[in-house]
Amino acid sequence: MIKRRETRTVSIGNVKIGSGHPIAIQSMSKTDTSDIDSTIKEINGLETAGCEVVRIAVKDDKAVKAISEIKKNTKIPLVADIHFDHRLAIGAIKNGADKIRINPGNIRKPEDINKIIDAALDKGIPIRLGVNSGSLMEMYTSSGSSAEVMADSVEEYLTYFRNRKFNELVISLKSSEVAVTREAYRVMADRCDYPFHVGVTAAGLPEDGIIKSSIGIGSLLLDGIGDTIRVSLTGDPVKEVNIAKKILGAVGARKFGPEIISCPTCGRCQVDLISIVKDFEKKLQITNHESRITDKSLLIAIMGCEVNGPGEAKGADLGVAFGKDKGVIFNNGEIVKTVDEKNAVKELMGIIKNKE
Ligand code: SF4
Question: Does 220 lie in the same domain as 104?
Fold first, then answer.
């Protein structure tokens, strides 16, 4: 059981984040925000996949104007990502953004920051101070470890908000290096009680990005650090959401339906276990989609032989331990049946449907 770092609660639209609330999944639309139809379509697809907060890039006035129309046609809270120009932040807030993200590295003038704070106070929305290793303030680029430099830069920026008693804040400190990201969040965790949005930035194509995100986000979550997460992939954003769900499930923070454990197989295995597990996962996904058994957190073990099979299958909610051409099915720790290899998936699915 994860012991969460204690934080304030911050509301992003109707999603509350912080240690008293579930860790929320965030992603980012990859469309040009001024292409309203494409952006709405992508956001709604992300919501269907399980995204709970979505960020959009607001790079010009056309994107600012698009926000109100996008808001009308989507349900999940919208975060406007702002760089360089404080007027875009103010416009996004006025047009209905549920949160804005600003970068301490590129909006620097105190009078501009104060105008953003005024607008956020007026609409009652939070602000994320999101530092990235690639856009650190110049004054901080020459001394200290990268993690400390990132934390120092946020801390210095926080002064403007503390002076105004503005506490509806979320902090992020992302680096493309896993170890630096992890250390930066750990350093900052000792310095404030604002919720953290956690992720490894520019993590790369899915194969690399999934590994970096799983280690970076996962290790922080296990330390109790992280209130929203974003898996950053050079690829389909729906995949970012699916991987975020798997990370939350793997660390035991949230459950998103049945979890399959299966052995890697070896020379002792006498069935085509890989095909069986793939077939079972596919049928499970179809059934989930049709009847929403995704709400249940079943643990299902599919194991290749008698070495570890009976133990894992017995310990799961449902399991099968294969031998030669046959499998012994366990339900709630009890043996219920011995089935032929080719009937195993059908039998497991039948038991799952009866559990609904
Ligand atoms: Fe091999 Fe059996 Fe272990 Fe699977 S459970 S990896 S088949 S020893």
Answer: yes
Other C-beta atoms within 10 Å of 165: how many?
8
Is residue 137's pLDDT more than 70? no
| 236 and 148 in a common domain | yes
Let me know whether 211 and 296 are in one domain.
Answer: no
266 lines ligand 1 (CB under 6 A): yes
CB 265 less than 6 A from any atom of ligand 1:
yes
180 and 58 assigned to the same domain: yes
Phi and psi at residue 226, to the nearest 5°: 130, 125
With residue 340 as reference, give the H or E element that holds it: strand 334-340
Question: What does the alpha-carbon distance between residue 150 and residue 152 come to, in Å, rounded to a whole number?
Answer: 5
Q: How far is the CA of 308 from the centre of ligand 1 (A)?
A: 6
Q: Is 268 in the pocket of ligand 1 (CB under 6 A)?
A: yes
User: Both 243 and 263 in a single domain?
Assistant: no
Q: DSSP label at 6?
A: P
The closest-lying atom of ligand 1 relative to the alpha carbon of residue 312 is: 5
Closest CA to 105 of 79, 68, 67, 138: 138
In a domain, 275, yes or no: yes
Q: 351 is in which domain, residue-wise?
A: 259-355
User: Do 197 and 135 share a structural domain?
Assistant: yes
DSSP string, 245-268: HHHHHHTTS---S-EEEE----TT
Task: Say yes or no: 306 and 246 in one domain.
Answer: no
Tally of domains within the chain: 2
Cα 264 to averaged position of ligand 1 atoms, centre (Å): 7
pTM of structure: 0.89
Ligand 1 near 139 CB (within 6 A): no
Query: What would the pLDDT profile of 212-260 be if each residue is shown by its tens digit?
Result: 999 999 999 999 999 999 999 999 999 999 999 999 999 999 988 888 9
